[in-house]
Design a protein that fits this description.
- The protein is α/β, with parallel strands linked by helices.
- The protein folds into 2 domains: 183 residues, Nucleotidyltransferase, domain 5, CATH 3.30.420.40; 160 residues, ATPase, nucleotide binding domain (Nucleotidyltransferase, domain 5, 2-Layer Sandwich), CATH 3.30.420.
- The protein contains 12 helices and 13 strands.
- The strands form 3 sheets. The protein has a 6-stranded mixed β-sheet, sandwiched between helices. A 5-stranded mixed β-sheet has the order 10-9-8-11-12, sandwiched between helices.
- Strand 5 and strand 6 form a beta hairpin.
- The relative contact order is 0.18.
């Protein structure tokens, strides 16, 4: 099938879109891929919904949070803009299916709650095509973490590359997450801690833009060891894997009082050290780490990771993959698996008790 996959992650910067040809088990071809920014008012609507959700984390119902309707409208409009652009491109071709995970505004698996906004039915009606959505709920309802949800696609990618095992995929979005793949195909995956999220928040707080381009500000600063020690005392790091995070489980409280450059340096080091802290949770140290997501372009972060991990850090792009859109491709892959009734998660990826199917299908009206 030729599938359009979408992803709007915890960084809230916009939407990644990619066309993938797959049967849900093997990768048959890659179509166009692109990124689309959220408009300022769209991002503001999403941030308002997140703030309301964090203030009332027990309210799993969208109706309980009045800002959700505005956020859903904003997310849907942004995805329509992205899909229109993808389908009008000269290389778009026929699309058989859309994989639409929506925008996460609350992820509390400990409360059996994960909430994404975005109107899949509106997309299905507009494009007259089946849209697979709500990928995570069945996993959480069955006792899983509902994240990370890309590992099965990571395994499919690794199978095409002939990498030495064990190998780890490290996605650096708002949150960091690792997928460990053993030589026997065994998987273990979990969120490692903050990815770019805290660094981005720090930059915004200081009026220095929305992210630290290439880690330039971090390179100018000094790492505060006392602050690092406090950050690494977070209870999350003592939990067994698999495990997952909401982006806002970590805050900037510990770095307040540092200068802008020192704070950026410390938060960048924190991301790297928190990834390194995951190694004892893995069955064996990876022979290499494949870097995906926006953080792979932060040279200071990559240098810190290489130092902390003691193993090669390989940019996914150097393997011929598209490091920015791997998650969008993954939701195209998972959409086909949903149609075929194949598992979207397994015990090693989310802690779900047994391989778990999931997703729902919005079909166009007759």
């Amino acid at each position: 099938m030729r599938v359009l996959g979408l992803m709007s992650g915890t960084s809230l910067d916009g939407i990644d879109a990619a066309i993938l040809e797959t049967d849900g088990e093997t990768l048959l071809g890659f179509g166009p891929a692109a990124a689309f920014d959220y408009l300022p008012d769209e991002r503001q609507a999403i941030e308002s919904a997140i703030a309301d959700a964090l203030a009332a984390p027990h309210a799993a119902s969208r109706a309980a949070l009045p800002s959700f309707a505005a956020a859903e409208a904003a997310v849907t409009a942004a995805h329509i803009r992205a899909i229109d652009a993808m389908l009008s491109g000269p290389d778009a071709g026929r699309i058989d299916l859309i994989g639409f995970p929506g925008q996460t505004v609350l992820h509390r698996p400990d409360l059996s709650c994960t909430v994404q906004v975005g109107d899949a039915c509106a997309l299905s009606a507009r494009y007259r095509i089946d849209v697979v959505h709500d990928f995570r709920s069945a996993d959480v309802a069955a006792g899983g973490q509902g994240a990370p949800f890309v590992p099965l696609y990571h395994a499919a990618l690794a199978a095409t590359a002939g990498l030495d095992h064990p190998v780890a995929f490290l996605n650096l979005g708002g949150v960091g997450n690792v997928t460990w793949i053993g030589g026997d195909g065994r998987l273990l995956a979990f969120d490692t801690g903050p990815g770019n999220g805290l660094i981005d928040q720090w930059m915004v707080q200081h009026g220095l833009g929305s992210f630290d381009a290439d880690g330039r500000l971090a390179r100018q600063g000094q790492i505060s060891s006392p602050v690092m020690d406090r950050l690494m005392q977070h209870a999350y790091f003592a939990r067994a894997a698999p495990k997952s995070l909401d982006r806002y489980d970590f805050t900037l409280d510990a770095v307040q009082g540092l200068g802008a450059a020192d704070g950026a340096a410390t938060l960048t080091a924190f991301t790297a050290v928190s990834v390194a802290a995951s190694i004892p949770l893995l069955p064996a140290p990876p022979k290499a780490w494949v870097l995906c997501g926006g953080g792979r372009r932060n040279a200071t972060l990559v240098a810190r990771l290489t130092e902390a991990l003691g193993a090669p850090c390989i940019n996914a792009d150097t393997l011929g993959w598209r490091g920015d859109t791997i998650e969008a491709e993954a939701f195209a892959f998972l959409a086909v698996r949903c149609l075929r009734g194949l598992p979207l998660s397994v015990p090693g990826t989310t802690g779900v008790p047994q391989p778990q199917t999931g997703g729902r299908i919005a079909r166009p009206p007759h």
